[in-house]
Structure prediction request, 374 residues.
Amino acid sequence: MDSALRQIIDRVRDSVQRQAPVCIRGGGTKDFHGGAVLQGERLDTTALSGIVNHEPSELVATVRAGTPLAELEAALAAHGQCLPFEPPHFGPGATVGGMVAAGLSGPARASVGAVRDYVLGLELVNGRAELLRFGGQVMKNVAGYDVSRLMVGAWGTLGVLTEVSLKVLPVPPAEATLRFDANPADALRRLQAWGGQPLPLNASRWEGGPGGTGTMWVRLRGAVAAVEAACRSMGGERLDTAAAAPAWQACREQTLPWFAARAERPDLALWRLSVPAAAPMLALPAGVAPPLIEWHGALRWVQAPPEAGAALHEAAQAVGGNASLFIANKAIGTRVSGHFDPVLPATLAQIHARLQQAFDPAGIFNPGRMGPGR
Prediction:
């Protein structure tokens, strides 16, 4: 066991003994999420850095949690491989452990799967200062209760991630972006129709324009023949792939003008509505602008003041979805509450409590990160 890992274990043991909460932090690029108030003594994971093993022929990479995400992506790109779910960085210091802890995926998520679908196994330090390993480096090792994927999106509340094994994929041989003029209802209708066809859909986004109009972009990825055939059958305006790439990257990193417009409206927060792809346009509160739509209709970004939160939760739940506060508004910052849907079903709440008791009985890991009480 190396010194960096030993120091993490000793630090957790000391924190448990002192009943002192810790704030687990890698690059800190997602500290903004939900307006959470970060509590506890900082536990820095960046010393746990390095690619332990990358087997290009086996499509698997094992990486220490503090490894910069950019470093891993560069190593994969050198072998013509990638993380197909396009994890957002939100800053130059993003780490692999933060990617897994946050569980956030980029524009391709609806077509290729989420972060959790690519986690084969991981190592962590639990709230008893025990070093535990779950899963492995191949899919067949994932049997029974899949604890490794349970850590995806847990925001570090169940343990300190120290190492992760990931499935990776080859970069698709062909790509194309198509642009369409469409109102939101027409965009959703087209996406639903295309989703039922054997098309190499990879990503999509719709942004509103004046007078209820808007523009939809659809990215295709796959075999050359499949992409070319889809371009002919779907219509629209085909964009130069290199010219279209920066906008997809900006969508992934939330630097599109649609997101940047919030800088002029400090009263607005950014809300993330996850709904069934077939859900119609939602009834948003009066005065709230149309959403930016991703994931073939399943992800709707909404800019609205905090007081609209209850209405957004209700609108999402009415179609079988959920709403969460992604970025608090600048006017009141971290005093916003209600990061996630405010009321969990009793059974789910019991499961959450039992998991916390099993992995972090002293409740020292990232208190407040998942909302009030946690």
